[in-house]
Amino acid sequence: MKNSAANSLSSVQVIDRLTFLLDALAKEGGRASLKVLAAITGLAPSTAFRILATAQNNGMLVRDEAGLYRFGERFTEWSRLTYGKIDLRTIAKPVMIWLRDQVNETVNLSVQQRDEVVYVERVLSARMMRVEQIIGSRAPLHTTAVGKLMMAEQGKAWVQTYAARTGLPALTEHTLRDYASLWENIEKSQKDGVARDDEEAEIGVGCLAVLVRTPLPYHCGLSISAPLNRRSDDWISLLQDAARRIEKRIQGESVVLSLENFTVDV
C-alpha cells in the first residue's frame, strides 16, 4: 500500500511539473529552450528534460533544430474541441486591413508546410496594378521572403538538408540556387528581423516579410507584396508593428487555424 501511495504521489508531481513547464512555455510565447524553462519553473534541467521528452513522445510538444520547444499537434487537435476558439485568420485580418491601408499594397498571411509556404489569408490592394496571392497557393520556402525567415528558425543544418533535398529549384532567374548565397541571405534576414524577395518567386514582384509568433505548431508569417519598383523600406516598421499587433490580439485566446479551404499538415 505504501508503494502504491508513493507511486500515486509521484505521478501527481509529474503532472504538476508538466503543467508548470507548459505554463512557462506559454509565457515565453510558445517557444523556449530547456535552460529557460528549467529556470522559470525551478526544476533541475535533467528533470525538466525527462518530462519534456515524454511530452514530445505523446505529441504534446515538438523540439526544433535549434533545440527550442514548441506546442505540438496534439494541443492543436484539443483546442479545436474547445468552445470559444478563434481562427488565426479572424484575429489577423483586421490588422492586415490596417496595414494594407497604410501601404496600399497586398498583405498576406502564410504558414509553413514542410518545404513550402502556404498562403492562408490575404487583403488585396485597391490599385489597378497589384500583386495577388491566391489563398491556398504554395511556393518553395527559399523563393519567398517569409520562407527565408521560417528557414532561419530551423537552423543552418536544417537549411543545408533542405538545399540537398530540394535542389533549390528556380522559379525565376533571380531565385537563389546555391546554398552559400541562400544561407547568407537568410542570416542577414534573421539579423535584420525582416526578409526580402527580389523577384525570386515572380518577375517584377518584391516582398517584405516578418514572422508572427503564435501558439500554433508551425511557423507563421506576414508579408507585403508589391511591384518591385514600388516596394519601400519605409514599410518595414509598419509591417513589424502589424505582426506585434496580431501577437497581442492572440494573447489569452484559444487560437486555431481552420483548414476548410486548403490543407496544412502539421
Automatic annotation (TrEMBL):
A GO biological process held by the record: negative regulation of DNA-templated transcription
Which residues belong to any copy of the IclR-ED domain?
74-252
Residues of the HTH iclR-type domain: 12-73
**Xref: InterPro entries:** GAF-like_dom_sf (IPR029016), HTH_MetabolicPath_Reg (IPR050707), Tscrpt_reg_IclR_C (IPR014757), Tscrpt_reg_IclR_N (IPR005471), WH-like_DNA-bd_sf (IPR036388), WH_DNA-bd_sf (IPR036390)
For this protein, the record's Pfam families field holds: HTH_IclR, IclR_C
Q: Name one GO molecular function term.
A: DNA binding
Gene3D superfamilies reported for this sequence: 3.30.450.40, Winged helix-like DNA-binding domain superfamily/Winged helix DNA-binding domain
* Organism superkingdom: Bacteria
UniProtKB keywords: DNA-binding, Transcription, Transcription regulation
Q: What is this protein called?
A: Transcriptional repressor IclR
Which species expresses this protein natively? Answer: Acidithiobacillus thiooxidans ATCC 19377
Which gene underlies this protein?
Answer: iclR
